[in-house]
Design a protein that fits this description.
By secondary structure, the chain is an all-alpha fold. Helix content is 74%, strand content 2%.
Length: 315
Amino acid sequence: MGFLEKAKKSQWYGVGLLLVITVLCWAVFKVLCPDTFGAPDQLLTYLQTGIIYAVGGCGLYFIVVMGLWDFSIGSVLVLACLLSIGFAQMFGYPGLIIAPIVAGALMGVANGAAYIKLRIPSLIVTVGLSLIYESFSVFASDWAGTRLPDAYKMFGSYPWNLIVALAAFGLCAFILKYTKLGTYVNAIGANELTAKNMGVNVDKYKFFAFVLCSMFVGIMAILYIGYGTAQTPMTGMLSQSLNFKPLMGTFFALAFRKYGHPVVSVVIGEFIIAMMFAGFVALGMPVTVNNIITGATLLIIVCITTKRIKGAVVK
């Protein structure tokens, strides 16, 4: 067996490949715009943005790995941010931290219960519920305002944002590796019928996956509102635009899941996405071109890291 074949069998091969992609991405943009991209302080800014969405991407992984979708996370994020603003004014830092996590978990309970009871596709359920959460965000903004007081912005910058993010990443990794929930969501994603035949209560673990997904979005809200310091209500499904950056990190984890490090893949993937967006801005490209190139790049990465055998994808 050759060296390359041995390397591909290593569980760290996928992480190494992602790091190579990261360096190549940095090098390309650095050559194209050497004065406005890729300096050390700028890389820290890209990472600061990337870890925010990576927390949400970790939560989404529990859902998407089973073939489900949660298109309510943008509205969950907005509502959780507004509640964090309100409860921070009432209870200080405990309100700032606890309120969005609890609110996210409760919305996850609603998502999971609606999906299990209504027996309709998760995409339809979560899009419908997102309209409700968007409406609640209007009431939350009327109650608490839309700007986080200056005294509570510590989670928007280093080192506190990194501490919260690392805690979230550690929790996600622990759940995936050491709990039944982590084992069974992967088993359900691999083959739901087989999981049922083995006695796995599929509905139960799908429900808890929705709860965990929104709970992680609640943790993401702590970082998001600290970084942006203000959040306005988003109605008319405008919150859907917030779904896609966390989802892109989740796609990286799915593409590299066979190497067994989904959390690391989400984090590196989000850093790559943040770096690409910054690179396109440095080049002066409009947002539409930015999105086209980013989406195409993501599709290429997914395609080259999966094998197709007789039309089926082997993960």
